[in-house]
Write a structure and sequence with these properties.
Length: 832
């Protein structure tokens, strides 16, 4: 490849037009591959090329990160295509039914290449500068041939915050010259690493859920283009070679024969470069096409050709790292060359079949609108009593570009419950959410709603079930008949200050909106209470957890109390019920001891070495971006110096806490809890307290009577045999004690996304609020041994300790920020 690139540069230097474009090296002031470029330098280089080539480049700023770094896409096209680029974009959308009208003419292939979704997989943003430079090389016949029939969109860095976190650290510690010794400083990245974004989320798992700002803004632009191909560039461990398609099994069964065929075509084009240069690579291993929220699968389920490229290296590799197994040194320069080669091979592949790719894309959407895949032709979601959850689901549908409506009248139909997959006669009401499968995004709709995706191979890269009915805790149904929805009418919130000042305002408790409302009124110092028992008043029923906001205690606010409360309720989508008395017809009156005060807790979360950065990020984002409630972050190294008197709730995300939980530290912790503190121990943090004095959590004892496993095992089957102990992400029905404050707002069950084979005993002294029974498994892959272990197991438990509590959460209700069904439960743990 070095010879190929060198000849291109020599050839280009004779052309005065091309000579106006600075090379990456001349612009940066150092050889490409000698260090890591900061994001603003990469963005400036892209802008410079766009300014110098206005007839061939259009720059689209599409947002910014949480830390304020710009997000942008460069559209590179031939002068003729760029001159009509807006027509190309809209014609493409018209051809697939995403915009009304007919296209004005044929559409060229549209290829979108994304780089650096994982910040410390930093080679790809170095590579994109070389890719863009070469696409604008008018003396390169290959790239100019590509641009005749292909429009190229380049996203130089999906994750600028993570990239700069890595680049700033590495450039600060790298040796001069760099040290390739694997155990040297520059090859051991500190916590939390550069992989995630600001809130420490993995953006490559966020394509479908769009929890993070970067994902929302990128996919908003993606839906305005709907490219025919999307390539996602990554890195893996430094000992690995290079991965390109064909992908590994399992393939989702709804991936079309054309998409599978093109997966092989991509491999053919990539092999051409790698074989010629004697570069090592592998295919058909590790990287499958199943979980719908990756940069290869989500575009695939949107009809595109989606693929992942993985270069050996990653954050540990730095500029150069010695590889003992290979007997060589892996350099940043060689990694750049490899990603450059697959970028070019990808564009060559789609250009060679541009017309067919566009036709197959249109065919995909024609089928979606006229003969949608799957059994169900209409999806119905019951709305009454679940308005907040349905509203959250609608927000996701809007982000996806999925169309919906509502039932215009009550009706009965044969329907399949998407929770337990039982079929029967369903009764549905006016205003229930209706989603027709006859629409452009039909395939994506089907895949996101499917309760039990068919798995052709048990060895997978990620979770194996994700159905939206489970994720949102909704009663959703699939109908085999085609129904035409009425236009959806969103619920309006117009709480008014009553003419007569009420005794109290009541707010039901069943969605994240209600939790946001609580957080807001606590922030405004409004005093309130909560009913720990159901009650009736004024011929209306209210469940456990209902917020009771009395005038008593808020007298000092005067008329501002009513005005502010109704304003916040409208902004948080909460219905307030004013009442003129504290007397209830059943249940407990508002002055009883079962209607207890709620106060604003001071919350802290542990972070740092040993803590899962992803698990911490989920908690951090939940407080700052989802419920807007203050939280203090404390590094684990300061655990023994915690200001215990200033903390009401301490959250320990999943992690390894052995180094800090000394006997002295445990005694400090227990004293704080006995004095009224609340400890929330999540996943592996809960395991840290097993068999610790004073803590009630225990692992189940093994069954000595069971048959011993045969010691005879086949080495070649080791990976498959180990899968019998795994639960990579499957759905279980968690039984809940809905009378306990931890489960307020839920019925007697909760859909849990179980990702670890834990086996905790029920608490002998405490409250077993959530647990698995013999028949709790619902969907997704869970190994035979794993299913046995997970029977009769504690999932959520509360142990009283003096005036305080320990809340054990074996399951993470905040997983990736998309498991909406768990967010209220976690709020209960914090505030109740």
């Amino acid at each position: 490849m070095k010879k190929i690139v060198f000849s291109l540069v020599l050839f280009a230097s004779s052309c005065p037009i091309f000579a106006q474009n600075p090379t990456p090296e001349s612009f940066l002031g150092y050889p490409l591959g000698s260090r890591f470029s900061f994001h603003h330098r990469i963005a400036d280089y892209v802008r410079t090329l766009a300014e110098k080539n206005p007839d061939r480049v259009k720059l689209i700023p599409y947002g910014s990160t949480y830390e304020g770094r710009p997000l942008l896409v460069a559209v590179v096209a031939s002068p003729g295509n760029l001159a009509r680029i807006e027509t190309i974009r809209t014609d493409n959308l018209k051809s697939i039914g995403m915009l009304p009208g007919s296209p004005s003419g044929p559409v060229p292939a549209i290829a979108w290449l994304s780089y650096n979704v994982h910040g410390n997989e930093a080679v790809s943003s170095e590579s994109v500068m070389k890719v863009m430079y070469e696409l604008l090389n008018t003396n390169n016949p290959t790239t100019q041939e590509i641009l005749k029939n292909t429009v190229v969109l380049l996203d130089p860095c999906i994750n600028p915050d993570g990239r700069d976190r890595y680049a700033q650290w590495y450039n600060r510690v790298m040796g001069m010259p760099n040290n390739p010794t694997p155990w040297s400083w520059e090859h051991n990245e500190p916590w939390p690493g550069g992989r995630p974004n600001h809130y420490l989320f993995d953006l490559n798992r966020d394509w479908a859920w769009q929890v993070q700002k970067e994902s929302q803004e990128r996919i908003r632009l993606y839906n305005q283009w709907m490219p025919h191909l999307h390539a996602d560039f990554h890195e893996m461990g430094s000992a690995a070679s290079y991965y390109f398609p064909p992908a590994s099994k399992p393939f989702h069964k709804d991936i079309t024969s054309w998409q599978r065929e093109f997966n092989n075509i991509l491999g053919t084009y990539s092999r051409k470069y790698f074989d010629k240069n004697n570069w090592l690579y592998f295919t058909r291993n590790n990287y499958d096409l199943f979980y719908p929220s990756y940069g290869d699968t989500w575009p695939t389920y949107n009809g595109a050709i989606g693929m992942t490229y993985e270069q050996g290296g990653g954050g540990r590799a730095g500029v150069a790292i010695a590889r003992e197994d290979e007997g060589d040194t892996l350099t940043l320069s060689s990694r750049i060359n490899h990603h450059f080669a697959t970028s070019m091979s990808t564009l060559e592949a789609i250009s060679s079949r541009a017309e067919q790719t566009v036709q197959e894309f249109k065919k995909y959407y024609d089928k979606a609108q006229n003969d949608p895949i799957g059994t169900f032709k209409t999806y119905v979601v019951k709305t009454k009593g679940n308005e907040g959850r349905v509203r959250a689901l609608i927000e996701l549908l809007d982000k996806q570009g999925i169309r919906y409506g509502q039932a215009g009248k009550d009706f009965t139909a044969k329907a399949t419950n998407l929770g337990d997959l039982k079929e029967g006669n369903g009764k549905f009401g006016t205003g229930d959410l209706l989603i027709s499968a006859y629409q452009p995004k039909s395939s994506l709709l089907k895949i996101l709603f499917e309760a039990r995706p068919e798995l052709e191979d048990s060895i997978t890269y990620d979770i194996t079930s994700w159905g939206l009915a489970y994720a949102y805790g909704l009663d959703a149904f699939g109908l085999k008949e085609k129904l035409t929805p009425d236009t959806y009418t969103p619920q309006t919130f117009n709480n008014q200050v009553p003419a007569q000042a009420p005794y109290a305002y009541l707010a039901r408790w069943n969605s994240l909106d209600d939790l946001k409302f609580l957080a807001r009124i606590l922030d405004k110092k409004i005093r309130l209470r909560t009913s720990n028992v159901p009650f009736e008043i004024d011929n209306q029923s209210f469940g456990e957890g209902t917020l009771v906001i009395t005038r008593k205690g808020n007298e000092a606010m005067g008329a501002e109390f009513d005005r502010l409360l109704t304003q916040i309720a409208n902004e948080c989508h909460v219905v307030l019920t004013p009442v003129q008395t504290g007397f209830v017809t059943s249940g407990s009156d508002f002055g009883s001891n079962t209607v207890s005060p709620l106060t604003a807790p001071k919350v802290a979360v542990l972070a740092g070495e040993g803590v899962s950065s992803l698990a911490f990020g989920e908690v951090w984002h939940y407080f700052e971006q989802q419920i807007n409630y203050p939280i203090s972050v404390v590094e684990v190294e300061n655990f023994s110096r915690m200001p215990w008197n200033e903390i009401d709730v301490l959250i320990m995300p999943s992690g390894s806490y052995g180094k800090i939980l000394s006997e002295t530290a445990l005694n400090q912790l227990k004293e704080w809890i006995r004095n009224g503190g609340r400890l929330i121990a999540m996943e592996r943090a809960a395991s840290a307290f097993v068999d610790k004095s004073g803590f009630g959590i225990k692992t189940k004892k093994s069954d000595d009577k069971k048959d011993k496993e045969s010691p005879l095992k086949v080495y070649a089957n080791r990976e498959r045999e180990s899968a019998s102990d795994d639960t990579p992400g499957s759905i279980f029905r968690v039984k809940l004690d809905a009378t306990h404050p931890l489960a307020f707002g839920y019925s007697g069950e909760y859909y849990g996304l179980i990702r670890s084979t834990y086996d905790f005993e029920y608490l002998p002294e405490g409250w077993n609020v959530g647990y698995l029974e013999d028949d709790s498994y619902l969907a997704g892959f869970a190994g035979t041994n794993a299913k046995k272990k997970l029977k009769n197991t504690l999932v959520f438990g509360v142990q009283e300790m003096g005036r305080g509590q320990v809340i054990y959460m074996a399951d993470n209700p905040l997983f990736r920020g998309f498991w909406y069904n768990g967010k209220l439960l976690f709020g209960n743990a914090v505030f109740r």
